[in-house]
Every structure is written in C-alpha cells, then in structure tokens.
Automatic annotation (TrEMBL):
PANTHER family the UniProt entry points to: RNA POLYMERASE ECF-TYPE SIGMA FACTO, RNA POLYMERASE SIGMA FACTOR HI_1459-RELATED
UniProt family annotation: Belongs to the sigma-70 factor family. ECF subfamily.
Protein name as catalogued: RNA polymerase sigma-70 factor, ECF subfamily
Domain (RNA polymerase sigma factor 70 region 4 type): residue spans on this chain: 103-153
Keywords: DNA-binding, Sigma factor, Transcription, Transcription regulation
A Pfam family of this chain: Sigma70_r4_2
Presence of the UniProt keyword ATP-binding in the record: no
Superkingdom of source: Bacteria
Species lineage: Bacteria, Bacillati, Actinomycetota, Actinomycetes, Streptosporangiales
Domain RNA polymerase sigma-70 region: 11-77
Keyword Transcription regulation attributed: yes
Record GO terms (molecular function): DNA binding; sigma factor activity
GO biological process: DNA-templated transcription initiation
InterPro entries: RNA_pol_sigma-70-like (IPR039425), RNA_pol_sigma-70_dom (IPR014284), RNA_pol_sigma70_r2 (IPR007627), RNA_pol_sigma70_r4_t2 (IPR013249), RNA_pol_sigma_r2 (IPR013325), RNA_pol_sigma_r3/r4-like (IPR013324), WH-like_DNA-bd_sf (IPR036388)
C-alpha cells in the first residue's frame, strides 16, 4: 500500500470521529475545519508513524488535542465547553434551565486538565486506557485523573447547589 493509499484509508475511516472531536471543542465551524486540516496534515506528514487499526484513531485524537491546545493557547474555552455540556445534558434528559446553569458553572470551575478527561470520557466515550493514549499518560494515571476530576466536579456541583439555596433560587 502506498503512502497515499494509507493516508486515504486513515482519512476515510476516521474523519467523522475527528470532526466530531474538533466540533465539540471549538467555537465555530471555521475553527473546527482548522483543527481537522492540521490534524490530517500531520497525519499525512507522519503517515509512517500512524498506528494500524483503531490505534490510529487514538493517535489522531492525540494530534487533534495538541492542535487544539496550540490553536487556543491563551484563549478561554470555558464558554464553548459549557454550551456543549448543556447541549449534551439536554439531549440525554429534560433538565430545568437552572440546573443547567449550575452544571455549567461547576464545569467551568474545573481546571482545563479535568475538563479534558471528563470530556474524553463523557463526550467521546473513551475508556481510561484510551484516554491515557490521547493525553499521553499511563492507564493508571488516566483512571486517577478521571476519578479526581469526577470528585472535583461533584464538589463544584455541591458548591453551586449551596450557593443557589443561600441566594433563595432553589
């Protein structure tokens, strides 16, 4: 198989997943397109480094993650992440708007590192082992990060609930 054939196979197989990954993390279709093009440009240039099979998707997630970090360095992603979280929660079950505001505020309180592992687990449906490959750590470290991120999110949700009760909005 030529380099071109290999690239086309990777592109055809994983474009939709990378598109979803990027779209959930950017604020505009243009930013999404930029992330996708940079990700696949890297894959083209490093086609010999792209693993076989499903490992290729994890490799591409890692590239896309670094592209996003470079693209958004210094810019706040909180507003976009909160909106996507609200959309995901609304799709799962009907939620009162006040509850969504609490979830958004709690999620926004979290450090970027926590938001990323939670997003990979919840939005992308990745296991700890796959998260580890995307973020570049061991599976044990990924499980630990995810567990701690969930605890911090729960604590932030508690703070939001307490604040609402104190303000008389509940």
């Amino acid at each position: 198989m030529t380099h071109r054939d290999r690239f086309e196979a990777v592109y055809d197989a994983y474009y939709p997943a990378i598109h979803q990954y990027a779209a959930r993390r950017t604020g505009s279709p243009d930013d999404t397109a930029d992330v996708i093009s940079e990700t696949f440009l890297t894959a083209w240039r490093r086609i010999d480094d792209v693993p076989e099979g499903e490992e290729a998707l994890l490799w591409l997630y890692g590239v896309a993650r670094r592209v996003l970090a470079n693209q958004q360095r210094g810019a706040s992603r909180r507003a976009g992440l909160a909106e996507r979280l609200r959309a995901e929660l609304a799709a799962d079950r009907p939620v009162r708007p006040v509850e969504l505001e609490h979830v958004r505020a709690a999620f926004d309180e979290l450090p970027e590192r926590d938001r990323e592992v939670l997003a990979l687990a919840c939005w992308e449906g990745l296991t700890s082992e796959r998260i580890a490959k995307v973020v570049g750590c061991t599976a044990i470290a990924a499980r630990t990060r995810l567990r701690r991120a969930r605890k911090r999110l729960a604590a932030a949700l508690e703070r939001q609930a307490s604040l609402t009760i104190a303000m008389g909005e509940a």
